[in-house]
Amino acid sequence: MRKTLVLASLLWLTGAAWAGGAELYAQNCASCHGPGGEGVAGVFPPLAGNPRAADAAYVARVVRNGLSGPLTVGDQTFDGSMPPFAQLSDADVEALAGYVAGRLAGAGVAPTPEARPTAAAPGDPEAGRAYFLGNRRFARGGTPCVACHDAPGTGALGGGTLGPDLTGAGARFGSGLAQLLERPGFKVMRQLYADRPLTPEEARDVAAFLAAETGAAAPAPARGWRFAGLGALGTLLLFLVLLPFWPRQRESYRDRLLRRKA
Length: 262
Known about the structure:
By secondary structure, the chain is mainly α. It contains twelve helices and four strands, in the order H-H-H-E-E-E-E-H-H-H-H-H-H-H-H-H. The protein has helices spanning 2-28, 30-33, 56-65, 90-104, 125-133, 169-173, 177-182, 187-192, 200-212, 220-242, 246-249, 253-261, and strands spanning 67-68, 71-73, 76-78, 81-82. Strands 1-4 form a two-stranded antiparallel ribbon. Strands 2-3 form a two-stranded antiparallel sheet. A hairpin with a 2-residue loop joins strand 2 (71-73) and strand 3 (76-78). Helix 3 (56-65) crosses helix 4 (90-104) and helix 5 (125-133) packs across helix 9 (200-212).
């Protein structure tokens, strides 16, 4: 009888810890790793079916200290960067690690309603476009997205090429895109926005812009022809500007002196 009560108490305490961990997971992890720990192929490693994630102590260390560098899960390699979650208390870290190890790490575990991220207020796509292009400054002075990224709706010249093209980012990351923009999981973005992160409202606006423009991009060949056409137009304009001066370049210095005397 006593053993039964002890076992029941342990199960109840474990369930309570997992319940708290589910809420913490939804708030801090689900935007990148997915509501059920499925991850994003090639970007964020899965937690479901991940043997490392079944070790609560390992998960707790990663949550406290962060993790970066190449990481292989199954037959996929991930080379992102996860920041440390310094804002979480020790009790929160333990609850979160227990939930990940006890509920998500098992293969085929379906997400519980508690583990789904709560819906945030929708963003403004027009404001997001202004932030993306730098027409409106971020409140904390962050670099405009267009400096590194291209996306549909950026105009004829397009955006930068230092970072990946964000076409389809809205469909790829879904409702977690805003949280990913607010707290980047990529090393370069983390360094770039370390002391000037986007506000939650700005992140929602940019995410709304990217989601609204999903699927609206021109095909890759059309984008290539766009730059080729602009280059040809620039060459033509330069030729027209220099054309009036070209005949004088064929005159020698002696010819110009003789023409002046005449």
